[in-house]
Design goal:
mainly beta; 1 helix; globular; five-stranded parallel beta sheet; 208 residues
C-alpha cells in the first residue's frame, strides 16, 4: 500500500533504533514530498531497505532526501534501491548531502536509483555524501542514473575521498543506462494536508 508523507513541519518518515525495516516496495512505493526537516531519517536503525519511493522536494540542513545517523563502532548497512530522489535541497554548502547523507558507521548498497537536481543552498550538486572515514568499506553505488553520462559531472554530485582525503570512497561506476522505473503504484495528486505518523513494515520474522 502506497502512502503519502507530504509537507510536514518535521520529517516525512523518522525511524529511530528500530531493526529490520522496510520503507516502500515494488508496487507499493511511498510519495515523500516537501517535508521541511527532510524526507527520511534513519537514526541508529538496524538494516533497512528503502525501495521504490519518490523522495522529492524535501529540505534539511543535511540529508534532505535520506539522512542516516549511526554508531561508528557498530556499522550497519542499508539498501537504497529503485527510488526517485530528486529536487531535495540542503540549507548548507558543499559537503552536505541533499539527496542521501551517510553518516560515519552508515554503510549502504545504493543501486537503481534516479538522482536529479539535489542541490546545496548555493546550487551545487549534492546527490550523495559519504561521511564514513578513510579505511571504511567502499560505498557501492553502481547502476544509478545521476542526470549525466559524463563521469566527471557525476563526480561533482558525490562527496567522498576525492573531495576530502579523510573520507571513504564511493564506487559509482558503471552508471545506470536509463532511469529506473518509478514506483508502480500511481502517485496521488499532492495536497497541502500533513499525513499521519508512518508505519514501518518489518522484514518477515524481523522486529518492527
Amino acid at each position: 500500500l502506497a502512502n503519502r508523507f507530504e509537507r510536514n513541519g518535521e520529517r516525512g518518515i523518522d525511524v529511530n533504533a528500530s531493526a529490520n525495516n522496510r520503507i516502500g516496495a515494488l508496487g507499493a512505493g511511498n510519495l515523500i514530498l516537501g517535508n521541511v526537516m527532510g524526507g527520511i531519517l534513519l537514526k541508529n536503525a538496524g538494516p533497512t531497505i528503502v525501495e521504490s519511493n519518490e523522495i522529492r522536494g524535501n529540505r534539511a540542513s543535511n540529508g534532505a532526501g535520506i539522512n542516516t545517523i549511526c554508531t561508528p563502532a557498530a556499522p550497519v548497512t542499508y539498501t537504497v534501491s529503485n527510488n526517485v530522489i530528486a529536487d531535495n535541497q540542503s540549507s548548507n554548502n558543499k559537503g552536505y548531502g541533499a539527496g542521501i547523507n551517510l553518516g560515519d558507521g552508515c554503510l549502504a548498497q545504493v543501486t537503481g536509483n534516479w538522482f536529479a537536481n539535489n542541490l546545496t543552498i548555493n546550487g551545487d550538486l549534492a546527490h550523495l555524501q559519504n561521511g564514513n572515514l578513510l579505511g571504511s568499506p567502499d560505498i557501492q553505488a553502481a547502476n544509478n542514473v545521476w542526470g549525466a553520462t559524463d563521469t566527471g559531472v557525476v563526480e561533482l554530485g558525490i562527496w567522498h575521498q576525492v573531495d576530502l582525503p579523510t573520507l571513504g570512497r564511493v564506487n559509482f561506476q558503471p552508471l545506470g543506462a536509463m532511469p529506473p522505473t518509478p514506483p508502480a503504484t500511481p502517485i496521488p495528486t499532492a495536497t497541502h494536508t500533513p499525513t499521519v505518523t508512518p508505519t514501518m513494515t518489518p522484514f518477515p520474522g524481523g522486529a518492527g
